[in-house]
Amino acid sequence: MRITICDDKHDLGTQAAKLGAKLIKEAILEKGKAVIVLPTGLSQIDMYDVLTKESIPWDKVEAFHLDEYVGLSASNPSSFRYYLQKRFVSKIKGLGAFHEIEADAKDLLGEVKRLNDLLSDKVVDVIFLGIGENGHIAFNDPPANLETTNPFIIVNLEERCRRQQVSEKWFASLDEVPTQAISISIRQILKAKSLICSVPDQRKARAVAMCLYDQLSPYSPCTVLRDKEECTLLLDKPSSMLILGDRR
Q: Domains along the chain?
């Protein structure tokens, strides 16, 4: 893992986007295409503002997304499909493919199988992601399944995670936040060639410390990132406040 402390969260978003664009272009030059996985959340808004303006041959890019709430339609403003359509897909001309997680499907297990069939034989070049206040990556809340090799799984969302969604104003109340999601699994995240992990804001400082210092455990899901060589952890000054020493 490489750690970069950025000047502020806007610089963090810019650096994440620039690095991602570089890696996407390198994959396209090497094999004629790129497979990427896209996140959502407040931590990624600045990244998308820059990434969507990059000169990338998007017709050669196939995109998945990290996770989606069970039961929310694509038209629900709190859904991740709505977020990605607004901040990414609608701003890209000629995107090669975008595979939505249809987590409101009547046959949820069938939807997971469809996604797994789409992704299982592909090499993912870049995954953009963040870390939740409870230490989750994607929606792998503690205690996370560190063993499954399935690319996508159905997960239960713990209360701390659901409260974060309310505090970030994606939902008006805890009762509105779904209790399950479809998420890319931890092993699938670690299989990607490169990870770009953006973690701004003081409220994430404890999660950053967890990632770097806690014992590897299902109760500290983000700790798995420490051993991923091609993982860039981008922090701002508030989120890095509990890190010992100068890591700039």
A: 2-235 (3.40.50.1360)
